[in-house]
TrEMBL record:
It comes from Pannonibacter tanglangensis. Keywords: Methyltransferase, Transferase. Transmembrane segments: none annotated. InterPro entries: Methyltransf_25, SAM-dependent_MTases_sf. It comes from the Bacteria. It holds the Pfam family Methyltransf_25. This is Methyltransferase domain-containing protein.
Amino acid sequence: MSSTDNDAGRGSQAAALMDQVYRHQRHIYDLTRKYYLLGRDRLIDRLEPPVGGTVLELGCGTGRNLIAAARRHPAARFYGLDISAEMLETARANIARAGLSSRITLACADATAFDAEALFGRATFDRVFFSYALSMIPPWREALAAGYGAVAPGGVLSLVDFGQQERLPRWFRTLLLAWLARFHVSPRAETAEAVAALAEARGATASGGPLYRGYAVWAELRRPAVA
């Protein structure tokens, strides 16, 4: 079996798992997650896409972030992909209800290996971001690299996700990790290391750090502009 076949099989298994997990959760996802997916609006505020620019969210889920970002940055065009068809069904309904279908385009695809040109008619974007998605993707380093590969010259890859809760009580960390495991979420202790390594390998500029006493972690990778 070829590596392509293996990747396709892995992707279909991941899609089936996410559909199973969120088939019912998607209806209450935004209501429950707003209390503990901290730092999402901070990321959206910092996007600052250029006028007429393009923004891609990888792992867009219910479309909550895309709607908030489209409202916050009305001069940009937005795109989102997710591996779960169930989540995208909810996202399309939410986006239509918000009156933003003309500015937000969605596609079903694997964040670790996607063809943006085939999906959206464009290969790169001024801003690409992950919001609490890498902790749900087992081959998360591949997703990080794929995301950076979709960033246009001079553009930025941004992320926010669960941190290691290093300055929070141990009991809180234990309970949070147990809760997250129920939804196949695994905070990545190596996020900062992976971002730094990717920046060094690609000649990018990296910044980031913990948020909320380590509850969350953020990072930004700026791709060099073409000389």
